# Entry
Amino acid sequence: MKNSYSHSEGISETVSIILVISLVLILAIVLYALLFGSVSLKNTSRVAATAGTVIVPETSIPIMYSQPSAGDNYYLLGQQNIPSGYPVVYFMLRDPTGTSIKTTQTIKSPGANTYGTALYLYKDTSGYHVTDSAEMIAFNRTKIRPFTPQGTWTLTMVDKTADVPLTDMKVLIGAESPSYNPLGGSMTWTNFGQFINKTGYLLPFTSYNVGNFTGPGGMKAFSFNGVSSYIQGVDNPDVSFTGNMGISLWLQPSTTTGYHEILGKGTASDTNDNYDLFIIDRTLWFEWTQEGTSPAQMYHIQTAPLTWDKDWKYVTFNVNNGVPEIYYDGVSVPFNYYAGNTPGGVPLASAVPVDLKPDNNPVTIGRQNWPGNYLYYAGNMSEVTYYNRALSASEVADNKATYQT
# Structure
């Protein structure tokens, strides 16, 4: 048995003060925990985020998204080459019965902080997952399974380093679940065989005499016969631009002489074109109706003749704070400004800030929306992508190098 002592010495005044301070700290922590929840003395971060549901393309299955909007620095579990000293975050789910579920994460972005980027939470035959790749959702849609049971689910971002929650979000799964687009500020439409918003929204497009095949680098490509092939989509505010915009696509035209519309959102009236992009006698031509002009004034920009050959060419058109840019084969090319939309005019002496006039015209790809004057495109086209922002030069270069848009 342990030894026992019949007497003890009193503690010193210094030790007494230390004990009192320690007791006060302990009481303060206990009181804080009672009022505000558990306390962690580890470094962590705080994140503000929203959540909701989107429909998986070509299905009726809702999946969840979370869009972090502001907060401290962090990385997501599953990212590569995470530097030391950063919080690492993963997602936990809690279903309507209270059962907690940990997710696995497949994150393609290499950078810290996914602010402004939607993260998709979905279920398949192997479990529950998180990804930042809408393309992965679209291409693997046949493997995705519904969240069950229906009701209110809780999404929790958890700091793995400090083992504390950063934020909780509620998502309703079921017949009444709201489904809306979380990427309003960075909208992209691209073709997965059809045109599908990268948050999972299908833009109704109809193809007429358009062939489908796989292009270089696995691109999903369309072939146009130059006489009756085109794609037309209903009017949609996400592809009617009034400010910054980007159009990114791959082209392999079979003819570049004459007039050929690549894509546009115009009409037979010359006073109501949101935008139109053409190949005209080996040049790239972009025209638009200027907002706020009365009578309505059209302008266009046109490059010098370009070297088209049998190879695929990557083309990007941007408007960035009123300044247009044209990239051909990944390289920025010069152009002139002209008033009107008739070829052969005199270039303007100074640049015109682009101020696009919105309209309710359909979106057309491969021909102009002008009966009797369709100006069909002939050749192949792939990965047509619309952005409501301008692409950077580095993004253009990366897309050119990897057959992306």
Notes: Residues 47-173 form a domain with the Immunoglobulin-like fold (CATH 2.60.40). The radius of gyration is 28 Å. Helices lie at 13-36, 134-139, 393-402.
